[in-house]
User: Fold Myo-inositol-1-phosphate synthase from Micromonospora costi.
Amino acid sequence: MRTGVWLVGARGSVATTSIVGGLALRANLAGPTGCVTELPDLRGPALPAFADLVFGGHDVVTTPLCKRAEALASAGVIPGRLVAALPDELAAVEEELRPAPSGDTQADRAAAAVRDLAGFRDRHDLDRVVVVNVSATEPAARPHAAHSDPEALRAALSGPDEVLPASSLYAYAALEAGCPYVDFTPSTGARLPALHALAVERGLPYGGHDGKTGETLVKSVLAPMFAMRNLAVRSWSGVNLLGGGDGANLADPAANAAKVESKQRVLGETLGYVPQGDTRIDFVEDLGDFKTAWDLVTFAGFLGTRMRMEFTWHGCDSALAAPLVLDLARLTAAAHAAGRVGPLTELAFFFKDPLGAPTHSLAEQWALLTGFARALHAAAPGSADGHAA
Assistant:
């Protein structure tokens, strides 16, 4: 099942790491550590092979992909030996990267994106293309009357106003091009009634939001522990220090607020109440593509005894996120092939602010994900339960 992976923000650190990783897996130069779709509970015939993934994308940046990969290797994000071993493969992907679509109106820019996606699909004779947004975090979208209805939205996009934020315009273009859409960022993306209706109209699945790679991943394990033990969490405060482009972007207060809101949801929705404390995100340029989080949890046990817990998470954001991008592309492609339409709530395992928010417990999310994968594999051509290929 030849599958295109079209990355919005294709020259960024997460996208570049995803591309290098996908190419390395295809060439058997690296193992799939970090790719949950390669675990026995998820692996199976419904998923496109790494060898069947073809990469392309949009970006406003023009730095050649090989130079971005070399810079990440110098920073210790990816092994330099892989970059050195894949010059031709990286050059081939470079040929499939396009500048951000231009045009006088948002309708013009969406049409340009649709042409890019259709051309990519046709050139490589792809069965489908999954669009994954890994671009910079946006401020929360301002409400607009056209957000509720696809026809009203189409009409408004032809006017002079900026009706949609960039992530939603890409979601619109992806759906118009017949491509499933995944938002790995906390941006608005497909979370508008008009875009949901368009996905249903086109018979397409979509997923998101905000990849869960660090502090929130730990919260999604610890918060259910406190809830199940009937321990009263009195406060939970976190300080996140980020470098790189993501950290620089989050120095903008509006983008920062959107990210913090996404990170905070897990506590209130898991515990059933909101403890004192908050989450802060600060940009520290020297950290580069690495990030550090310090969390302090105070809680009360039997007879009101006061206790506390602290943890530190230090990780490389791109190396944590990139395998999940590949996982999401494979699972979404399989969902599309199986005829799934609308929000893929079973992908909550991957996100801080998942669509439908069925649960924020990582263990419960894992159970949903494995059940989803079993159903996809059972229905796949060539499986014991599916029809013959």
User: Anything to note?
Assistant: The chain has a mean pLDDT of 92.
